[in-house]
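Entry 0007
Protein: Lipase
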Amino acid sequence: MIHQINIIIIYFYITLCVSVEGRSIPVEIISDRNRTFSTLASKYGYHVDELDVTTEDGYILKMYHIPGDRTRPVLLLPGMMQDVEVFIVRGNKSLAITLATSGYDVWALNPRGVGHSRKHVHLNPDLDSKFWDFSFHENGYYDLPAAIDFILERTNERQLSAIGYSQGNTMFYVLGSTRPEYNDKIKVMIALAPICFLQHLKPLVSFLLKMISIIGNLLRSIGVEELLSDNSLLKRLFQMLCTQKGIGYELCTQGILFAVGGNHPDELEPEFLPKIFVNYPSSVSSKNVVHIGQVALRRKFAQFDYGLEQNLALYNARSPPKYNLRKVRMKIAMFLGGNDGISTIGDTELLRDELPNVVDYHLFSGEKLNHLDFVWGRNMDKYLFPLILPVLIKYD
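Output (structure tokens):
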């Protein structure tokens, strides 16, 4: 058994960390590897301002801005292992373009470590492991306040609206509970595929979270703090396999994406898959992976568990404190898919009952909408956006 575990550790270390320069990567991936939110927006006729936002703890975040009505700013936050380009990769049928066409002032933030947010005033992400010492807690406690204050100062407004996808809305629960003064700066937060509690997962997803948490801890113990970097073997393998015609689609959708996020092939056509894997998956800190695993295993939405000794030093308690969701006073509109394998109905209902100000709760029942459809689905302009826009208008 010990031998088998050692093999698993070595395998994951190699796949996550070893450079594969020189391996065969599809030409379209190589030529488009530097694709960004800005280049996609330009392709569809929109100018984008690229701005740097510096957090209180020294991280330099990349913010993308499509100018619109300054009195109606909307902040977009992607999910784990995603760049903000997920909000625009569908072009004219994407959320970012839909908002811009509707006159909104669109702001899209890459949290620390993602895409071009790999900068710090002192730390080098490729040399300093301390750069990667963060999870979704720091995203909510440091990244969001910096972005919100930056936008409000630029627009001269007191409030903005926000749309978070998956872990992108988890950050707002951290923000509202740990820095409650920011609740008053949010008109409404639209939570797409909400992630908070992880107690009603399907067996496969539950097992994967346990394994990922174990592997994440093991990797941290040997000094591996960044996962899925651009030169990691696993990311290159994803890009090679998932862009192959025929077998690539079956392997990466039925074998990976649909197996975890919920099956719904109607929304993810074969010819679109290569566009996803140009930059997906994005880097993630091993600490964030471990933190997500802790939330699932301990059945508590709580701060990071460092172990007894460090918990006593940091929290003055044996266990990390739970996030007080009763303090999250901002208006929240929740949208979830009945076919979502990650943001399940049971967990979302738990979250809805804990939050004090849920103003809308919309469940797409039956086979419609898995976890991925909210950003990648080809018919969201028909199913989802006509429901989002009235919520934004109502609380403008």
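Curator remark: The first strand starts at residue 49 and ends at 54. The chain has a mean pLDDT of 89.
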